Amino acid sequence: MARYLIQCDCGKQLPVEVGQAGGQVTCSCGAILDVPQLRKLRHMPVAEDKKEQAASRWSARHGLVAMSLLVIFVLVIANIWSMWTEPAVPRFEPDAYIHNVNDRLKTITPAEAWNLLLNYRLLAEHGFPLIDVANRPEIERQIEHRHFLRRWSWIAAAIFATIAATAAFWPAQQKTRRRGDKETRRTP
Ligand SMILES: [Zn+2]
């Protein structure tokens, strides 16, 4: 129940309830004060408990903001982790390959050289095989999947950021609620 403050000449403020409207209250200084009619009373300053209500409303908004920020934080961390651990498509490095071949040619036995020669003839007929990393398609699929997940994570983070910003900076919402309070108070 909302309580309003009436000012006594002694400087004290007395909290009165809506039910006391039009009646009288006695201040601790002994003065007897007239409580204004309900219509006027509503324009009096509000006692502490009303402010606490407003505060709890604020803390509910803060809770929403905090939750949204937490979700955003988790999404961002997950995305950073995803980028960090993303498998790279292994690259075929021709220099290293040639170096490897040269090393082998130095240590090769005559029999092996003969085999190589046979293979070289095959090579002359068929050309170079396309040298590539065997699991490239699988890795590319994984990367594609991660990109997809990350894209949606950023979108979700943006949505939660909008929720947080709305809860934090939308004053209209509070005004409407206050008006609602007054209307329910008017009925009894
Ligand atoms: Zn007084």
Using brief descriptors, characterize the structure shown:
mainly alpha, single chain, rod-shaped, disordered C terminus, binds zinc ion, 188 residues, two-stranded antiparallel sheet
Notes on the structure:
64% of the residues lie in helices and 9% in strands. The protein is mainly alpha-helical and 188 residues long. The strands form two sheets. A two-stranded antiparallel ribbon has the order 1-2. Strands 3-4 form a two-stranded antiparallel sheet. α2 (48-84) packs antiparallel against α5 (136-169). The radius of gyration is 39 Å and the shape is rod-shaped. The chain starts with a strand and ends with a helix. Bound molecules: zinc ion. Zinc ion binds next to loops.
Give the helices and strands, then pairings:
Layout: E1 3-7, E2 13-17, E3 24-26, E4 32-34, H1 38-41, H2 48-84, H3 94-106, H4 110-126, H5 136-169, H6 171-186
Antiparallel strand pairs: 1-2, 3-4
The protein binds zinc ion (ZN).
In short:
With 188 residues, the chain is mainly alpha-helical. The chain has 6 helices and 4 strands, in the order ββββαααααα.
Low-confidence stretches: 173-188
Q: Structural class given helices, strands, pairing?
A: mainly alpha
E-strand count: 4
Number of helices: 6
State the distance separating the first and last CA atoms.
12 Å
Radius of gyration: 39 Å
What is the helix/strand order?
Answer: EEEEHHHHHH
Provide mean pLDDT, rounded. Answer: 81
